Amino acid sequence: MITLPEKDGILGQLNEPLLEIKNLKKYYPIKKGVLSKTVGHVKAVDGLDFSIYPGETISLVGESGCGKSTTGRAIVKLDPPTEGSVLFEGKDMADLSKGELRKIRTQMQIIFQDPYSSLNPRKRIGDLLAEPLLAHKLASKEEVSKKVDQMLETVGLTKFHKGRYPHEFSGGQRQRIGIARALMLNPKLIVCDEPVSALDVSIQAQVLNLLKDLQKEFNLTYLFIAHGLGAVKYISDRIAVMYLGKIVELGKTADIFSKPKHPYTQALLSAYPIPNPHLRNRERIVVEGDVPSPANPPKGCRFHTRCPFAASICKEKEPVLSGDSHTVACHFPLS
Q1: What domains, with CATH codes, occur in the chain?
Q2: pTM
């Protein structure tokens, strides 16, 4: 059982997760030569275990290339996992038939980072929003038109926008359209793949507020992938910190920000700007060295090549996530 952070004065105690990730791996083959012989693999995601509970927002954070977006795409099977299980409402998606998988896909949607490249420039907005309903035969043409109008108004646009093309909108408006498209099938889980990183700061705030309002209105569950710790702190119930394809720390947002246990998490948070002038002179932790290649990750703890506290055991034995509500994969967790 997990206790979620307080929402509207209610502490949610939930027994059954909406989504369970077990030993999730995604490897990409490295080809060489005329015959394209496989000489190795890029281990983009290398053994993730976590659960997402109904109504919560869990965020994945970490440096570029740590496997955040790959994780999101593997969960919704846009890029099928190499190994491991993805259980949605207790059903292993690997065991489903094509028909069952098609049906369950209506309950799992994704919002992409770039709202322009994810929208077909040749189609009007109304057609883009209608397409999911028509493809799954969930409504008649008359019902679809009404649903499109309602959804556009829900995300802050109007029904008069549906005759326009994507290039006629600003970046923030295009992302609202992307959100509307994800909501058309009334999903339970939405993977938000860096949905605000390509937007101006003022627009980021508007989109984040919209996502929070929609979560309450439609009882949504989010997997939120992001770089910006400000956005993550604002929207998340729990945070999972990733490094080189692994989760190194997982806990409630307040615990991660106030008492980080992993040296990598502490370094990330030290770079987070704080508006309080009394805290601006806090120590900045600079992680030296480059991120190792995911094709050849270090033995033992993957962070030991850059960790200022690394000992001999860190170079030999890989730590596992341990703890109760706040877990960390470190031989010498910070107090």
Answers
A1: 2-107+189-289+319-328 (3.40.50.300), 121-184 (no CATH)
A2: 0.90
